[in-house]
Design brief:
TIM Barrel; Alpha-Beta Plaits; 8-stranded parallel beta barrel; 4-stranded antiparallel beta sheet; 12 helices; about 20% strand; binds flavin mononucleotide
């Protein structure tokens, strides 16, 4: 097994690898966190603490699955820590003493500037290395906390400044994805004195509805609520926000912690390539346990070895310049699909999708094999997306009439 040096600096703090537990039930107490750190996680964001103890509902979770797969998406109704602040601070302190080389991020939330300052002081005394401000939980019971704050740049700025008053530690602002653009609150956080940004928290959702009683899930004594969605299904949305933050000119050098749907090293690498130098994981640990870290470390190490990277920071942001606005995409050519006779299993899914969702450009033969009609094909590649046998790839490239021929990257 190859174990590369995955160390990286994040918000001025050195960490042995970029993989952290996200603030959530997976990081609620000493025992859990100690087990995770011993398994190889580089650091942890402790479950959000406040000056009040959350009064939680039961049940509090739901999920979306498809055809027997594990969770595609996961919904939760949780707020902040269910334990008293004193206990949480004590456990943070024990963690830092037992694992001085691991990174401890304290996640905090309050309703008033003075409480943010107070919490910042307390978690600093408890031994935290970084403070994460939770501006993003979408199911708080007050609009002065959580995602409502994250949507309000003025509050983001004043709460961040209040945290800065209480501590010299680096400050991470954890952003809500429940808005069109993350830039205004991100700039407000930086204006208030944040060191870095963490994104995303969960996305407001309704997952499933019970058909007998017509109540969305989970049912809490006959009712439910809109609340946060996480897991694999949110990864594309999270990546979009990471790209937005990392490519914004005034935020270019700002450290970013990427969160949302990370289950394995490939997911993690996507966040890194779009500019994240730190990664947080929640739902995948809730489903598979702390040991997924082993795959993440070895997978990323193998990738770096194979591609000739010696340091992780060489990878940060490498994909950023390759995302352009739709008006800048090259529209000069069509790439026709090429169907491999050897790999095709004759299932007909390419034919059905092309007939009913494409351009009726595939002929289905009596021997159950597809053939592309180039005159009708527009090169959309719906056929290759639906092929379960990976039998459809890229074939001939045709330049549109009057367009210049050139070599293209595919
Ligand atoms: C059950 C549950 C509880 C959570 N609690 C918190 C919390 O206390 N503070 C916080 O900042 N985020 C909280 N989150 C959000 C996660 O930290 C994370 O941002 C989100 O789940 C997306 O990551 P994932 O797809 O890896 O789960 C919670 C998420 C879940 C599923």
């Amino acid at each position: 097994m190859i174990n590369k040096d995955l160390s990286i600096e994040f918000c001025g703090v050195k960490t042995e690898n970029p993989f952290f537990l996200a603030s959530a039930p997976i990081a609620s107490n000493y025992q859990m966190i100690a087990k995770a750190l011993e398994t190889g996680w580089g650091g942890v964001v402790f479950k959000t603490v406040g000056l009040f103890v959350a009064d939680e509902v039961s049940p509090r979770f739901d999920h979306v699955k498809k055809e027997g797969t594990p969770f595609l998406g996961f919904k939760n109704l949780e707020q902040i820590s269910e334990y008293p602040l004193e206990k949480n601070l004590e456990e943070m302190n024990r963690i830092k003493k037992s694992f001085p080389d691991k990174v401890l991020i304290a996640s905090i939330m309050a309703e008033e500037d003075r409480d943010w300052t107070k919490l910042a002081k307390l978690v600093t005394q408890a031994g935290a290395d970084i403070i994460e401000c939770n501006f993003s939980c979408p199911q708080m019971t007050s609009d002065k906390m959580g995602a409502d704050v994250g949507q309000n740049p003025d509050l983001v700025k004043s709460y961040t400044a209040a945290v800065k008053q209480g501590s010299d530690l680096p400050i991470l602002a954890k952003m809500t994805p429940n808005l069109g653009s993350m830039i205004p609150p991100a700039l407000a956080a930086m204006g208030g004195g944040a060191t870095g940004l963490a994104a995303i928290n969960t996305i407001k959702s309704i997952t499933r509805i019970d058909f007998d009683n017509h109540i969305p899930l989970p049912i809490v004594n006959g009712k439910s609520a809109v609340s946060g969605y996480s897991g694999k299904a949110v990864k594309p949305i999270a990546l979009r926000f990471i790209h937005e933050l990392a490519s914004y000119p005034d935020l270019k050098k700002v450290p970013i912690s990427g969160i949302g749907g990370i289950e394995n090293w490939q997911d993690a690498l996507e966040f890194i390539l779009l500019g994240s130098s730190n990664l947080q994981v929640c739902t995948a640990v809730m489903q598979y346990g702390y040991r997924i870290i082993e795959d993440m470390i070895s997978g990323l190490s193998h990738y770096m070895e194979k591609k000739g990277f010696s340091k992780l920071d060489q990878l940060v942001g490498l994909a950023l310049d390759n995302v352009v606005s739709a008006d800048k995409l090259d529209r000069d050519f069509i790439i026709y699909p090429q169907i491999s006779k050897e790999k095709c299993i004759g299932c007909g899914r390419c034919y059905i999708s092309c007939e009913d969702g494409g351009h009726q450009a595939i002929i289905w033969s009596k021997t159950r094999r597809p053939t592309v009609i180039e005159d009708k094909c527009v090169g959309c590649h719906l056929c290759s997306q639906v092929c379960p046998a990976e039998a459809i790839g890229y074939g001939e490239v045709e330049f549109k009439e009057g367009r210049e021929r050139k070599s293209i990257i595919i």
